[in-house]
Amino acid sequence: MISKKFEFYFLALFSGVFTSFYVLMDAYGLKALVPDPYVYSFLCEWIGLITCLLYLLVLGIPTTIKGKKRPIGYYLDPYFQGLKIPRGKSLQYILGAGLVASVSTITYFIAVSFSDPSMMLPLMNFSTIYLLIIDFIREKDVPSAIEIESVLSVTLGAFLVTLSKGKIDPYTIIITLVIMNGCSTAYTAFMKKLQEISENGKKNDSLNLRFWSLFFLTLSLSIMLIPFLDKARIEMIQKLFFSPMIFIFFTVNMGFAFLSYVMYIRALGKGKMSIVNAVVSINIVLGIPLTFLGVKLAPNVFESISYDAFLWTIKIVGTIFVIVGILALSLSEVKAYILLRTSSKHAANILEKIYKIRGVESVAAVAGDYDYIVKLRIRTLGKTYNIIVWEIEKIEGIIQIMSLPIIKEWEIP
Amino acid sequence: MGKIDAYIFIEVEIGKSEHVLNELRKLGIVKSVAFVTGIFDVIVRVSVNNLEELYEATVNYIHKIDGVKRTRTHIIEKELKQEG
After folding, report:
1. What is the ipTM of this complex?
2. B chain contacts of residue A407, beta-carbon cutoff 8 Å
3. Which label site among A1, A125, A382, A405 has the fewest CB atoms less than 10 Å from its CB?
């Protein structure tokens, strides 16, 4: 059985990994295949929607898993039961999510067309802080001090990694901090809400949530794109839409996006929004080696990376902040008392043997019901706890182990 | 003479945990209090000057706290401990 915590970090991390893939593909596509951003996003969303529908139909094919009839998509999300049309409150939230996503996309295009966008990507990382505040207000999952510290470390790191040379444009800053970040925060909050509510006793699954939010995003974005689609652009869309090369490119690109979003949405259902966002920020760090790879594979498309020492120092510092923050988030402290009984002919140096095991804070030989009391204190992903208990079990002479995990502890000085 | 340390395991009546905790914190000899899951509910670590003091603390103080059902005391004979 996989622990809940492991699953949460697995989902969030891999969402970040897949994000870095499709971000790189987007960079390639915009330079080499479809240089016009309006045409690009139109094609991307529509082909993405069609392929997403195909994925869902394929994933809806029933199969037998552990003796039960289930769709293939069960592996991606156990709540998935085939394509279904959202209704009620769920429909409202999905509509909202699609709408805010389209507003942020169109705002991005407009902002890029009249201002220097170099500050945009770095500032977009701050939406994690907005989520941190929302997490704080929602009484159900108030972040702990270490979580706040780690999330801030990741956010600052991501900001530094994405910094690039350019003008500091006040329009860009305001647009990003208000509209872009507002929209992405709202999107995340809608998805979180959708994970919590259920229609007719059935929980929303991430696959349908992705498809239907993409559906509304595509519709509203297409409407907003109309004023920008002149004759030349329409001709370009007509020509490119039926090009097999373009179709395959977007199928793969949106396939990564699909996996990334499905995992992101599932992670949201399992933990705090700000933490999911912080962990997904790993994609910013992964973007650096991937860009190097891009330069190697397609040198004519990707500009060679500048070797500005100052910028690189900042990027490295940022990377450290991101990685340290994510590690600190995923490692949490586990404390427990372990009570041991030993047989009368046990080894003499049992105290030393136990004390040598990693994670043992103290071991006491006692007089009473039990013979030894061990105190464990480890910062770990959870699995190590069992390993330590097995290590203790292996020591000769121990006949009984009673483990008492500590829920809460006060030290009185 | 050195100090005597001991662990006292306490079984607590349902709903009285908060009260027991607050009472234990008033006891000067208590070094740490931990809520645990398992056969006991609370593990207290105490440090006393002699056995008389330990007897006083358990029989005349802890046993009289409302909500304490049962205690088990384990006196530490030898201990290996990380500093800090």
Report:
1. 0.89
2. 34-37
3. A1
CA distance A375 to B63: 25
Q: Which CATH number applies to A332-405: 3.30.70.920, 3.50.50.60, 3.40.50.2300, 3.40.190.10?
A: 3.30.70.920
Range of the domain at B32: 4-75
B19 in any annotated domain:
yes
Contact B78 A337 (CB under 8 A): no
The pair phi, psi for residue B2, each rounded to 5°, is -75, 170
Closest residue in chain A to residue B41, using alpha carbons only: A404
Task: Please list, in sequence order, all residues whose beta carbon lies within 8 angstroms of the beta carbon of residue B5, skipping any fewer than 6 positions away.
Answer: A364, B31, B45, B46, B47, B48, B75, B76, B79
What's the CATH code of the domain at B29? 3.30.70.920
Comparing A94-98, A199-203, A323-327, the range with the smallest average pLDDT is A199-203
Residue B82 forms part of a structural domain: no
A230, two tokens: 């002149």
Does residue B83 belong to the interface with chain A, where contact is any CB pair within 8 Å?
A: no
CB B63 within 8 A of CB B72: no
Taking only the tens place, the pLDDT of each residue in A268-295 is: 988 889 889 999 989 888 888 888 888 8
Distance from the A212 Cα atom to the nearest Cα atom in chain B, whole angstroms: 44
User: For the segment A107-143, what is each residue's pLDDT rounded down to a tens digit?
Assistant: 887 887 777 777 788 888 899 999 988 888 875 556 7
Q: Does B4 touch chain A (CB under 8 A)?
A: no
Contact B73, B8 (CB under 8 A): yes
Contacts of A358 in chain B (CB under 8 A): none
pTM here is: 0.71
